[in-house]
Structures are given as structure tokens and as C-alpha cells.
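pasting Threonine dehydratase for the record, 315 residues
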Amino acid sequence: MITKEAIEAAHERIKVYIDHTPVMTSEAINALVGANVFFKCENLQKAGAFKARGAMNAVLVLSNEARAKGVATHSSGNHAQAIARSAKIMGIKSYIVMPHTAPEIKKRGVISFGGEIFECEPTLESRETTLQEVVKKTGASVIHPFNDYEVITGQATVAKEFFEDIPSLEVIIPPVGGGGLLSGTALSTKYFSPATSVFAGEPEGADDAYRSLKSGIIEPSQSNSIADGLLTTVGDKTFPIIRDHVKGVITVSDQEIINAMRILWENLKVIVEPSGAVPFAAVLKAKDTFRNKKVGVILSGGNVDLSRAFKLFGL
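structre below
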């Protein structure tokens, strides 16, 4: 089990390489929701997403011998950029397997950090097979996007910061894809704010976490949503934490995600990608659950392909 001390140590380890992201509020949004909503803006994080935290922590704890061979991962984009950035900081190579359907902005981000991209089909099987081939050739250390305890520990620092900045949150809600951020959030809540309830937002078209909590076993993902960063299945390391510490998962449609993005853009004046807007879409959908409460929403990323976004809004 990841301890409170491990999260504190990870935060100390990575803090010079990440931003302490701001918390934003909007009176208009509070009135719309009927609650006091606080937004932890990880869309303003290094490389545009919370993934910078877990990736940096995982790279920093590698031995010098392991680092010398480089690091490798598979990712649709935000973790890919975070690993490439972390590798560049440490002066080592990064090998990134990405589906050919990944947003161009995220591919460009990987390249800008010196990462070498290996494209694959947009399936988990293709990702993993391609990654195995890359590792066989390079000897690089694999840093999984979410099913890795050092990654989870790094992601837990988001909620730790949130609780430090906004004490006494009654609810905290991140998005869930593979569960790295959600499981890290759940553990930080357990250690630093145990009175806070943990929920998660998830796309209806990729609702494996919702179904897994219902069945008690890991269910496959359908992977059909505009929230490209959440099109994966919870892992055997993340799911037990989610199962034991998360109160509920709220699923939202693509149209509800688009509506949430519009409200955030118009009221907070910040760019939030579809995956990052999912937890706010969940709050909007389940207003009665959160009414009159002090709600913390984690905006997980802001790497938007503007050409795609304009199409979503009919522009």
C-alpha cells in the first residue's frame, strides 16, 4: 500500500520540476451548480496535464543503470508528453508508443521534448505488443501510464496540494480512465482529508470503472468517447484502491462533456480538454448530489486539438 509518507516524499521529490497549479472559482458556475465549486487547474500544469507529476516521480526513482537505457511507455498523449519531458530533464532517451489516432497536438508535444514515437493501432493489444517490441530493441524501462505505484504516488500529489490550498472540501472529483489519478486522489483523501468524499467522472462510452465498481471485478472498456485521455481500462493496481475508497462514479455523455467544456471556457477563461472536463460534466449532471457542498473538481488536462474542438462546437 502507498503510504502517507510516500506521497509526501514524492511531492518533495518532484516539486522543483512541476507547477503548484492554481485553484479557480466562478460565481456564475456556483450559481449554476448550487454549490461552492473549486477547480484545481492541472490543465495549466507542465506539459498541459497532471501526468507530469507521476511521470517525473517514476523517472526520478529509477536507478542510474536503468535511466541509461531510457524509458518507454504507451499513451494516447498526456502521459506520453510527460514521460518525454521527464526524460529530457534527466538527459535520457524516451520511446513512446502512440495510437495513430492520437491528437496531433499531443504528438507534437512528444516530439518537442525529444521523444521517439512508434505509432500503433488504437487498441490496447496493439499498444502493448508494439511496446514489447520497442523494449526488446532498446532495453528501456517501462513506465505504465497508470498501473504503476510510483506513477500513482506522483498523481496523489494533485489532491494533496488541493487540500492544502482549500481545506475542508466535502467532495473531490477527478476523471477516471485507467485510474492513476483517481486512485492517487483516493489515497491522498484518506491521509490528508478523510472527511472528504471521493467521486469520479467517466464517459458513458468508456464506463469500465463504473461497471467494475458494480460487478466487483475489472470490466473491459468500450473506448467510444471524445475524451481520448480516458479510453482505457482500470488496472489491477488502481482498481483495488478505487473499489475500497471511492464513493461513486458518475457517467456522462459526449454532449454533456462538450457542454461542460463550453461553460469552463466561457467562465474560467481557461482551455480544458474533453477528458479534463468530464468531472465537471458529472457535477452538472448530478447537481442534487453536490448541492450546497464544497466541491473540488480536478481539471486534469488542457491539451486541446483546436481543429477538433472547433468542430465539436460547430465552428
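The chain has two domains: 4-48+149-312, 52-142.
The domain at 52-142 is CATH 3.40.50.1100 (Rossmann fold).
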